[in-house]
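Hi support team,

I'm opening this ticket because the web form for multi-chain structure prediction keeps timing out on my end. I have pasted the exact lines I submitted so you can reproduce it. The total is 992 residues across two entries, so I didn't expect it to be a heavy job. Is there a limit I'm missing, or should I split the entries? Thanks in advance, R.K.
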Amino acid sequence: MSPSDANTAVEVVQPLELTDPNWFQKAVFYEVLVRGFFDSNDDGTGDLRGITDKLDYLQWLGVDCLWLLPFYESPLRDGGYDISDFFAILPEYGDLADALTLIEEAHKRGIRVIADLVMNHTSDQHPWFLESRQDKTNPKADWYVWNDDDHRWPEARIIFVDTEKSNWTWDPVREQYYWHRFFSHQPDLNYDNPDVRRAMVDVIKFWLDIGLDGFRLDAVPYLYERDGTNGENLKETHDFLKQLRKEVDEQFPGRVLLAEANQWPSDVVDYFGDGDECHMCFHFPVMPRMFMAVRREQRFPITEILAQTPEIPEGCQWGMFLRNHDELTLEMVTDEERDYMYSEYAKDPRMKRNVGISRRLAPLVENDRRVAELLHAMLFSMPGSPILYYGDEIGMGDNIYLGDRDGVRTPMQWTPDRNAGFTKADFARLYLPVLMDPVYGYQSVNVEAEQRDQSSLLHWMKRMIDIRKQHPLFGTGSFSVVNVDNPSVLAYVRRQGDDTVLCINNLSRFAQPAELPLQDFDGMTPIELLGRVPFPKIGELPYFITLGPYSFYWFQLVDHGSAPAQ
Amino acid sequence: MKIEQLTPLLPAYLARQRWFAGSKPSSVGVVDHAQLSDRLHWVLAEADGARYQLLIGMVAGLPPEFLHGHDPEVLGVADSEIAFDGLLDPDLAKVLLSRLAPDEVVSRVRPMGAEQSNTSLVFDDRLVLKVFRRIHQGLNPDVEVTRALADAGFEHVAAPVATWEENGTHLAVVQPYLAGGTDGWALALTSLRDLYANDGDDPADCGGDFAAEARRLGNVTAKMHVALADALGTGAPDTGEWAGLMERQLERIAAQSTWNASARAVFEHLRDMANPGAAIRVHGDFHLGQALRTDTGWFVLDFEGEPARPLDERRERSSPLKDVAGMLRSFHYATAVALRDREDFEREAIVPKAQAWEQRNRAAFLDGFLSTNGIAGLLPADPADIDGALTAWELDKAIYEVGYERDHRPEWVDIPEAAIARMVPG
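Hello R.K., no limit was hit. The queue was backed up. Here is the completed structure from your submission:
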């Protein structure tokens, strides 16, 4: 199918009214595995209509933007990141009409929808590749990266070292090697070919045309290859992304490009360009360091990486997350300077157990609700837009015996009923078994029970999201760390215009005192944001505060005597 | 106002100050004085043979808010105005800063707490003004050494931005404020508290493990010594003099001890070393409280040496192992102090954890120290001699601690005594 065929086949969804082109700077994102969220047709696999059915829940929670993991036609040898048709929905998930309905219904609720897109490569089952491999002269012969030997670009590392021996694989049909930075069934597209660039821009425009609000661009650093380089973060790649951004801005203002560049922050910022490349990038290293800080009971793992994070251009934003569909990744740690995570983290026996396998948040923190809340409080208050992983809002567990990344991809637990309320299919038909263990199983951990229970993690999460939304400074305000002698305490001030919020986090499992030099706020009154309880006025002396184990405070600082701003 | 009006207030004021060496001065005289602004007086006072720098602020009317809770820093009333420690007054602090660094524009001032020999103020969380209290004739070693280290490319000190120097004597220094830092002592105690509350005894299994920090601190320490040697030169080591000083201190403090002979043997071993390494300028008073962990790694603070000793002595070259010994003793102190915070009934069960922590972090610190490029040339050539010399310096430090604790905190004397018993079993 070509994009023009597709366009005639489907309607177009009205884009959400654009009141703020920088909406993504303040948004709360929610990552959804289509397969795992809700099954509308009882075949044991989640689908797009299932997500549509659950939009009211997501609206209730306060989600601003859904991020859908790949939903394209695919042989599914890499969770859908091996796309065989960019213009078609995987039949198990529904069809284009279902995608349209989802986007339309989401927009009605003020929720935007972005989707994963793999730019770097396709499946080896993609018609482009099938044609390209036929011979060296066909019209798509130059759409992939072919070579007579497998010696070129030895500087490029092998990313999936466990399964791949080389970035080159021999094709017996064309009798040449093809280039692939990831699995050998995922040949890299040749971006030096203008037809390829045009085709991929068409893919993006096709989806934006029908109403999608943007993309999470998978594996962007590897688009080009150049002799004598490691093929990552090349200027040509940035040039292409800038051109893409220009075309998106011209025709689709307010849509967002979120780059997955699993690199060190100083390299990642290049993907913002001068505010003319990607709108958002994931901040990868801060996530494992948040876990490390709680483990070490000191703030330096976090403040160190923040200190190494450059300023980003106006109109850009970091994507922050605690957990996602992948393992706790250490892949960006390459040279010795950056080797903190290997020396600190990977040597720690408890943490080591979690490297290279996927864990959800709750089991990673040994189901300690206080730690889960503390980590989310930091996620919601540090610079960047938070991205929640489906199920973490209810404290779902994982099943590490499912292997690879499937352990964190089990069905969403909606109710204590059969199959967790995820599907009415026979248990044996489920794409993965629902969790049934006594601690994390669906009979104890599910949306229905937590919605009824006002003191549940889910209600706490909703309240925090509410508060975050009342204060745009969490998205776009300034950030400055407050100097505290106690190493277990991390305190910072977010500020925007007249609104000031002081956040204090205790990373220790013990109660801790802290003296905060708050002379800049002399005369102001801290009001705790969850309960709106006023605390003693700040004076010229250091402000003294005590924190319970793993506790945190968000204080709005208001001028004494005046009513707190809402 | 005439200076004579202030003089009678000085003895009682000095006696109340933490940086004053004695308890009650028998005589106080004014050596020099100057008026820095209409409300700020600079006074160099001499009391019992030691000189002190005073900055005295004057204010008319009721006591201002910044004096609340600072009664010890108020001298009294002179010429119907209140005389007080001028560093408490934000306006006067800025007057002083502008004298040192006229180009710096600041808005906020806060005190950083008084040390034994100086008083520090923080401006805008950006600059620190350190005012020396006890004044020794000559260049202040902290300023001298910090500047030399920075010039030699050592990145782990706060290089001076400006100094106040009169007649070859340093009076104050401005340095960058190391934002977000925590001293090593607080970090070590955080780690120890975590371990002591843990189920297992192995610090490697404990979340608050300090070993990676200790290793990095060892590395920074060695880099500091290499830079000190580069910047301020090396000399021939006089092991005879080193051992002699150790023996004299031993006689002074523990002449009657059962382990006296064993200790002498340790010092004798140092004296006889054929290849004892180099003699360099050292930190001189190196412990966890002098190391600040910041977002960009460890920084070393306060190169003044022990303030009670004369300047010439503090400038003398010594072995880098003297500083190493100081830090290792500090590791032991941290385990013991954290142990004191626990209840009596549980202490016995925690002792193995304390020992394991000390062993692990000693090893990590030494590993970080010894594996640093360039340090080997400053140390004894024979690894066995490194151990032997280190034991001598550690023993010497512990004996000093026994003397100090006996005079100041008798209930703590068992901490260094326990360390001595490990090194030289009676």
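A quick check on our side: Chain B has a mean pLDDT of 92. Let us know if the file doesn't open in your viewer.
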